[in-house]
Amino acid sequence: MADPSPPNHGSGDIKDAYSAAEALPTRRDSMKKRLSFAHEDMQNVQDGTMPSTLAGVVPLTAEGYSIYSNIQDGKASIEHQIDINVVDLFDVQSNKEISLEEVMDGLRYVMEYRIKGGRFPSLDYDIMKRLADGLLMNMGHAEKKGRFDQSHALSEDADVAFQLFGEFLLEVQEFRQAVGEKPVSDLRHSLKLDVRCGAGSTVQEQQSSVALIALLTTIYPQFSDWKELVKSDGQGDVQRCMQEHADFVKAEKMPEMGGVILAPQALCFDRRIKRCLKMYRTSLETGLPSEAIPALQEHYGKNVLPQPPKTSALKMIWAQLTDFMILLLLAVAVLMAATKDFIPMAVLLIVVVLNTIIGFTQEYKAGKALDALTKLSVPKAQVLRDGATSMIDSDELVPGDIVILEEGESVPADLRLAEVSQLEIIESILTGESVAVNKDPKEIRTLTRKLPLGDCKGNAFMATVVAKGRGKGIVVRTGRLTEMGKISAAITGHTKVMTPVQRKLVMLGKLLVVFAIVLCAAMAGIKIGYHHPVGESLKVALSLAVSVIPEGLVAVVTVTMALGVRRMALRKAIVRTLPAVETLGSVTFICSDKTGTLTEGKMGAAELWTSNGLKYGFTESTSLDPNKGDVTLASATGEAPEVLGKTLDQMPAQMLISLMVSSLCNNSSVVMREADPTAATTIPVDVEDADLETEKEVVVPGAPEWKGIGDPTEVALVVAAQKAGFPKSFFQDLGYNRIYEQAFDSERKVMSVVYSAPLEGQPSDHFEFVLAKGAPEEILNRCIGYLPTVEPAAVASPLDILKPGQPELTQPVTEGFYDHVSEASGRMADEGLRVLGLAYKRVLVNGGGVSDQGIGDGLDDVNKMKSEKEAVPPSHLQTNVDILTASNVAQADDDEEEEEIPPGYAESDFVFLGLIGLIDPARAGVQESVRICKEAGITVVMITGDHIKTASAIAKELGILEEGGRAIKGEELDLLSEQAIAELEPFPNVFARVSPDNKLKLVTALQSRGESVAMTGDGVNDAPAIKAANVGVAMGIAGTDITKQAADIVLANDNFNTIVEAVEEGRRVFDNILKFIVYLLSCNCAEIFLFLLCSIVNVDLPFTVTMILWANIIADVPPAMALGVEPAEPGLMNRPPRSPKRGILTITSLAVILFQSFSMMLLTFGVYMWADRSPEHLDYAHAEAFTFLTTLQLLQGFLSRTMRTSVFRVKFFGNRWMIYGVMISFILMIIGIYTPGFNGVLNLVPVNGITWAKVVVGCIIMVILSELEKLVLRRTGWTI
Question: Which residues 6+ apart lie within 8 Å of 1107 measured at CB?
């Protein structure tokens, strides 16, 4: 180690820098002796001895803990809290759910109330090393000082990080060691002392900088020259600050920061109640004092949800009217008014009005999701303040308030429950689960600040409803930081992007405008060049502009998608936004929940493997009816399984005790719901409706049904025991009563219960036993023996195994047995089963005749004495809040130590029984739907909260996860940024143990790589991801109202097959939109090319302006509308999805348009040039050209029914609307030609049979050309 002599500060003697020059060496030496890592003390740490602390710090125990701390458990709690914040320090840049301010508040609170003052001078080195790195990384954050000022000021969070760096340096030995290992260049770069002492810095920044320089130069010899810690151009500013704030050289501490230091808002599910009361400076008996509320509200803010942006109805209408396609239609209407064609103008204006009404309605409905959020706030809350209960406005609540919950009330904020009495809360608004959740105030130990909402048994969340019982809770989160507030902010803050069809139609409209202007200007220029009248030439050009712009496009698109909505509704997919119909057709990723969507959503016991190696199965395991299904014993020889009897003497001992564990170590039940005479059940029957084969439902009277109450996994275990003939009531009738429970938590992964049972012949005495279930590895690790095969003669009844005084039948757990169980567990998991281990143990009690064995009653001789702890002096400047709430803090005991568990009830020394495997079977047809998706080029991704092995097995069964595929866990997803997720190769097909919060991250990551994503969900937590997805899909049965309102599509049957059918319908809709766009542009371009060619060769134009407009009216809309309901072409789902980046028209489709338009144009031009165009016969030539081209256009409507397939391979009457549309258009054409008077208005004259013969020949040629075109497309495989 370095020489302990006083360090040399280098050039520019530090005596000149500090005003107290002569006193400094003495001061420095004094601090070196009292700071643990000054010179020789650094060696002490490496040798394992504990160095000294600052003067005035309380003494330590031999283990290195302050006598004020609650020894090891308190230390572990602090390290746990710091570790959570350290993880967030490194994740804060990439995780939008975390703010640096929130992390700094958490660390500052831990420092002020848990560490400062010598409470815990020694903490885990690895945590401290990462903390030092995290603080250094975040103390340089800057923000611009002004709009025109290019300089940057350090942010407030950066100042807090700097302050905490100095305070941890003073308080924690391992932190000092970690800092001492840093290169001086790293400290110079991160500390930014030149900025903190430069122009524009605050007094607080300057004082903190001087104090930290004094600490660093004093503690570490390698940092003794302060100039090495500062950039050369800033050393002058630093020296000036040291002269101005010399007092902080002698202070041996960091300057106090202003502001109130209060507990950060957090769920605190891992904190005990008394610790929470101290954190929020409150009391269960008196609550907060009213005088402290204003300061707390100023610090925490009001308890109100983020308000969604309000858009007025007028703005919505204006947005619809300023849409590019609508402006295009209005421009065309103006052009028609300019040519005095008022009837077509009126038709266009009607289209504009209808489209505006439809668009406004869709946007208004979409905004309902935001409006619904404002209704979730609870108006009133029953709160305890000043020792009295009163009703107040819920927006007045602050963290620390004590809220009283009664049956039927809504929870006004996020609470940490402190007292409960049979409290059950319905959290369906958040989770989608309609079953009430039993609440338990016991803390849950976990290694992360994030825990699935369903596991937060000690919390109550805003807007959830108390179904039963009552409780008292501490407000721990309010307003925007509540679970509902975060969801509200995510929904209101995410803007919905334009769908592919909307973007493509806008682009098409712009291209058509340019195309129309160029061609019409060219034609008008040619006409004028041939010395035709300018006015007439411009009028014809305007008419052609009307011709080339498909004015029926918006109307046809809207009607086509609306018809698609109807067809999808018949398939149980309810569409809430019209564009979602087409967007489905371009989906490249379907991210689907597993439970209830890919699977039946019903857990059932599939296999029970007992410790003697036998396999039992269950028939009809997912049926809740206990009268349906049996238990079978698998044959070792491959024969048919043996059906077991349902009596006590017919059931093997291992099987019976295992079923007892399944039934009694359980908080769920299955009950029969009585028949409701007013209810009805729907039964599907096959019908054929138009072009769609679907199901129709008939209604039958209501019938009774079995209903599972509680966790689906536990319900499945109850059902398994019932099907075997041993329900809970069987054991209750024997006098078995539960007397103790240790609930399951994510850390232990075990649940255990203790039952008491009477001893035969000794009514006053009883025996007890413990039953346990949980993760197989956790159960097995807690076992010392296992139950081998029990011969019938060994015991009078299988239940006697549990009684005290019976012969010991167990065998010790060996390494070979451990491997045997591990192999069985792995096999079951690989088969897609959720595996649980089962175990038991006897608790020998008084009256059992074996008390001399020393085990005793589980409740005997429990030492509940707690160590008294001295009060710790305040370590920060007291505020008004500190003073007002001091009595609450003083009366709250600290209870960091673990709750004492009766020795006999400890989860250890178990006897292993076996493994039970549960399965949520795949839905019928899902495997085929996944195969269809793959052929269609769509990647299916499974998202589940299930175990990764179980999820992977189900995914393999369904074909989602193939050889070489990838599955990752949610905890791995948490560590990746959106960019890193997007770059995963191969992209995972299975995301297991994923929380709803991860879904939004997954959606944005996929969208960033150009994918079109459909996302499913049911709970409110899923709403942000559903809203952000290209197509949000909500569950109609399990989904919440907010989720449905945020979604584009709602599945009435929660079935994945319905999503695939909806994708097929979306492709059909886009295909039909493309067909009528190609049809409209082909017909309209044929007209403009015909006029352009006639202008070039300088012949009279074949149509008058009136004929052009009449042709557009009769030939455009009816056939195009009919194409919108065209049945899907064969092989539709064998094509890859259309890229969202691809335009609505490809090079191939443009080539098709040109080919069709040139075919019609050249045939018509030939007929027109062949006709007698002399002045006296010119009107007939015009009528013949009009008849010929219009008939070809109507024929093209038939030919456009397919893009690749031969028209002769489709049913002629497959689209009866096409027949009706063409007939209507043809009749209108005949009326216009042959009706006297009306034909004069249109400048038409009747045509003879020769003209019709020409029309027939032209149609035959057109059919041949069309078939040749489709043959080329089929052979080349070009994308249309």
Answer: 1182, 1186, 1242, 1243, 1244
Which secondary-structure segment (H or E) carries 1033? strand 1031-1035
CA–CA separation, 1226 and 1224 (whole Å): 5
Residue-by-residue DSSP string for 961-1017: S-TT--EEEHHHHHTS-HHHHHT-SSPPSEEES--THHHHHHHHHHHHTT--EEEEE
DSSP state of 1100: -
Has residue 893 got a pLDDT over 60? no
Residue 9, phi then psi, degrees to nearest 5: -85, 10
How many angstroms separate the CA atoms of 374 and 306, rounded? 8
Q: Which two tokens stand for residue 134?
A: 């995290």
CA–CA distance from 143 to each of 11, 157, 201, 327, 388 (Å)? 34, 11, 13, 43, 46
Question: Region 398-427: what's the mean pLDDT?
Answer: 90
How far apart, in whole angstroms, are the C-alpha atoms of residue 473 and residue 453?
A: 17
Give the phi and the psi of residue 362 in degrees, each rounded to 5. -65, -45
Catalytically active residues are: 593
Quick one: CA torsion of 840, 841, 846, 848, rounded to 10 degrees? 90
Between CA 8 and CA 25 the distance in angstroms is 10
Which is more confident, 447 or 232?
A: 232
User: Encoding tokens for residue 1267?
Assistant: 């078939």
- pLDDT tens for 708-751 read 777 778 888 999 998 888 888 888 888 888 888 887 766 678 99
Return the pLDDT at 658: 92
How far is Cα 1005 from Cα 1011, in angstroms, rounded to an integer?
A: 9
Query: What is the rounded distance in angstroms from the CA atom of residue 1017 to the CA atom of residue 999?
Result: 9
Phi, psi dihedral angles at 373 (to 5 degrees): -65, -35
Interacting residues of 201 by C-beta distance below 8 A, sequence separation 6+: 153, 154, 195
Tens of pLDDT, residues 799-816: 888 887 777 788 999 989
DSSP 1146: -
Residue 267 backbone dihedrals phi, psi, to 5 degrees: -65, -30
- pLDDT score for 891: 60
Q: Crossing angle of helices 1216-1234/1178-1199, nearest 10°? A: 180
Strands (E), 267-412: 380-385, 388-393, 402-405
% residues pLDDT > 70 (the chain): 76
pLDDT tens digits, one per residue of 14-55: 334 433 333 344 444 444 333 433 333 333 333 333 333 333
1237: left (phi > 0), else alpha (psi -120 to 50), else beta?
left
Mean pLDDT of all residues in the chain? 77
- The per-residue b/e assignment along 1098-1114, b for 16 or more CB within 10 angstroms, e otherwise, is eeebbbbbbbbbbbbbb
Q: What are φ and ψ of residue 1017, in 5° steps?
A: -175, 165
In terms of average pLDDT, the best of 104-118, 692-706, 881-895 is 104-118
- CA dist., res. 510 & res. 318, Å (int): 20
